[in-house]
Amino acid sequence: MKKMFALILALLLMMSIVPASMADDVTNVNVWSIYTGDDFRIIQGVVDSFNQANPDVHIEHIAIAADDMYIKMALVAGDDSAAPVACIMHSYNIPSFAKQGIIDPLEDFLTAYGDFSEDLYLSNEAGKVDGLRYGIPFCAPTVVTYCNMDLAAQYCPEEVADGIITWDELYAIADRMLADGVTDVKLLGGSWGRNDMINAYEQCGGTYHAEGDPDTVVTINKEALIEATNLWKGLYDKGLTQQDGDDVMGMLALGELIFATGGTWNLSAVQEYGINYQMMPSIQKDINHTYNWGATECIVKMHRNVTEAEQIATLRFMEYLRENAMEWAKSGAIVMAKAAAESEEFKALPQSGAMVGNTQTFAADHVYAGAFTTVFNDLGFQAVYGIITPEEYADAIQTQCQQAIDGLN
After folding, report:
1. Are 361 and 143 in contact (CB under 8 A)?
2. Which residue segment(s) compose the domain that 375 sits in?
3. Can you give the pTM of this predicted structure?
4. Domain co-membership, 95 together with 43
5. Distance (Å, rounded) from C-alpha 336 to C-alpha 135?
6. Which of 19, 54, 102, 279 has CA atoms 20 to 30 A from the CA of 238?
7. What distance separates the 2 farthest-apart alpha carbons in the chain?
8. Cα within 13 Å of Cα(326), Cβ side
9. CA–CA separation, 147 vs 1, rounded Å?
10. Distance between CA atoms of residues 172 and 398, nearest Å
11. Are 223 and 111 in contact (CB under 8 A)?
């Protein structure tokens, strides 16, 4: 009996030691992301699945609102004890963060990956700065158009037949609605002035720098911005868009709106409305060159030292995200993993409707493009609503974008 007791005690001691030794072999990696709200639930599910499938690695995922995360990244860069190993961020901030040394180029980091191939991703240029890769493409949230198909069948069946709506078509529909005295349905609603104005500006050929401009200068194409403003303002003046303060997505849900601009990130909410809808590309100026304004979200490495174990663990996590991209796609994301994006499973998802006609995702081409989004956000639809004139709006965008750059230098 004593021998049996001793044997049991020895086994219990051995069992108590195993978890401690295993814990020593676990590589912990902190990863920050901009995925809050509904997105957090989905990305956290992928993280949890990875941790379960890889007991020797633990990814500690922390979601932070984008603007707050970018401030925190700048504050902790270079501090091994405070900075995460990796972050998931918008591509439009990558150039300025690279210039400021907040994030590191990935050429050396990727050596532990094995044979890293850009061909695994849809957008090889996303995450690059001056030819150096700083980010691995993850997904591309973009500006899209949600169409109430029941209302479209009543007011504009021919215009929506090809899955793309243009500004010229919107004005033709507007004239018919006005002629018919339609008052209980609006034609177009813009859910986020920042995105809608940037998208329209770039659809009109707008750019952010002139040839030969240094990085510290922004040159807004005033004529293009005024044209973009008037595209929206013309429909607003006809009384066929949302009014200041309206809940656009709520109008879509209640059947009061034919077209609502939004993002791929609105998909989950739209699905819950229970309406007959279709996701389309953003409103197009030129049917022969279709694109959506957006920003590829990329996985980047923070500027800090990492151990070889942290490096390999992080790359394994990146690979897992690519291989399990369909889980993220189900949330409405346009994923950058080529195998997933080109699969029949993805083509059956609603967001594939935002990519008809070989529609591309377009991001602003300027080192400080991320700073401009704040300026456009603050001014929103002010010129559309008549609070300021389109000319005043264009001048304010130019002045405030330049001030934003100056504040970063």
Report:
1. no
2. 143-293+368-407
3. 0.85
4. yes
5. 12
6. 279
7. 99
8. 11
9. 78
10. 32
11. no
Q: How many CA atoms lie within 13 A of 137 on its CB side?
A: 24
Per-residue pLDDT of the chain in tens (409 residues, 90 and over written 9): 333 333 333 333 333 333 433 446 899 999 999 998 778 888 899 999 999 999 999 999 999 999 999 999 999 999 999 999 999 999 989 999 999 999 999 998 998 766 688 899 987 788 999 999 999 999 988 999 999 999 999 999 999 999 999 999 999 999 999 999 999 999 999 999 999 999 999 999 999 989 888 989 999 999 999 999 999 999 999 999 999 999 999 999 999 999 999 998 899 889 999 999 999 999 999 998 888 988 889 999 999 999 999 999 999 999 999 999 998 888 778 889 999 989 999 989 998 888 887 787 777 778 888 888 899 999 999 999 999 999 999 999 999 999 999 988 8
DSSP code for 26:
P
Split into its structural domains, the chain has a count of 2
**Tokens 């049996």 sit on residue:** 4
Which residue in the block uniquely carries the two structure tokens 């956290």? 44
Tokens of 117: 């191939």
Question: Does 306 share its domain with 278?
Answer: no
Cβ-contact 220, 394 below 8 angstroms: yes
Residue 280 sits in the same domain as residue 260: yes
Q: Which residue has the tokens 């990796």?
A: 86
Domain assignment present for residue 357? The answer is: no
Determine contact, residues 292/144, Cβ cutoff 8 Å: yes
Scan for tokens 């004593």, then name that residue: 2
